[in-house]
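pinned: reference chain
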Amino acid sequence: MAKYVVMDMKKVDIKSSSLQMVDPPHLSFKVVVELDKKIEKEASKDPLLQQEFQAQASEILDQTKATIQQKCEVFDKLFVQMVNKGASDKDMKKQLAGLNNAIKNDIKVAEKAAEIGVQTAWKNLQGKRKEWRKFKIKIGVSIAGTIAGLIVSITAMATSPFSGGAGAAIGIIGLIKSGVSLAQDVGKLAININQSKVILVKNLAVVEKAASKPALNVANEVSAAVFQEFLGISQPSVKTCEDAADTLKAKYAQMVVKIHDLSKTLNKILKLQDKMKAEFLKEVSSKLKKHPIKDKKGQLVMISKALDTALADNYAKVQAAIDKIQFMYGEARNWAKSVKDLVARVKKLTLKDPKGLKVFREGLKFAALALSPIDGNSIATSAKDLGMGVGGAVGGYAYDKITSKALDGTVFDVA
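pinned: its structure tokens
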């Protein structure tokens, strides 16, 4: 028996322009026919025999390539869907093994088909050449394929949950809670200042009235005070005025500091929001580089715009709160002169110098002592509204909600 090589091809590509993820296998295709030595020389010179055998082998090769290509395209679409839905590494490997098993079966079928095809071709030739009818041939077909893979690693393909910017989102929620607490403190301080101012003004009204009378000694003004004017309030004296003034100054200073802290806190929220967005988009960009989708830039732009929309209401609430703080600060600063004037009036009550005391008393007779323009209720109401407004943004900064809105309708949408 003499061997005649009908076809011997190596590393035959399985190509398809539609494949995004599947790295198709390469095929090696070899068909060998063993001929009887009695017809070897004649057959090797017969172009008809060679053409028949090669035609059958080529047909089977083309069919095999087409079948494997089709399977690769089907699995490719499946892989893309799995990646988009965040499939696990295990599931991806399972499906890839399924593709390779399907290709192995196709190769087995192709080997048998090639053997039958060449045998059929030989029978056809025997029908045309009577002298060949008594001879038999032995056909050997060997088709091998490499393992199909993915263009990038399965681990890189399988989408893991997003975490970019999650730390910033948690930090923002902490700042919001701190901001609400500060707003509540400002409101309480405003009420305390208002109460201190009312008590101080009423005490001053009585004590200054007593001090304006030359017959009274300022050191003993308590006994000469008109207590009826202070129903429900401790009897007025220089000491009660000093205590009220000290409280007024301390509470006012605390409130100004708290308002400053609140402003800083809210501005930190906006900075953290920018940080969260930058970190999230950085992760999106990284995942897109590993993703099979072709329009990576378009996806990034889409997600960035959706993220802006998801954060817009939160930004507006925080910015509105900052604007309100500026108004509150301006209103609070207007109290500075009133606090200063009230404290100055208290200090004059402690004058020991007779000459100075006389001038003070004479001045009190003609002074128009209007109530100082301090309205703690106004700032307290503003602080309450501000706290509710800032607090209302907490739910809007839930990381899963923000990212879900940002990824809606994109390749990372797992809904």
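why pinned: Confidence is low (pLDDT under 50) at residues 216-233, 357-372. The two ends are 66 Å apart (CA to CA).
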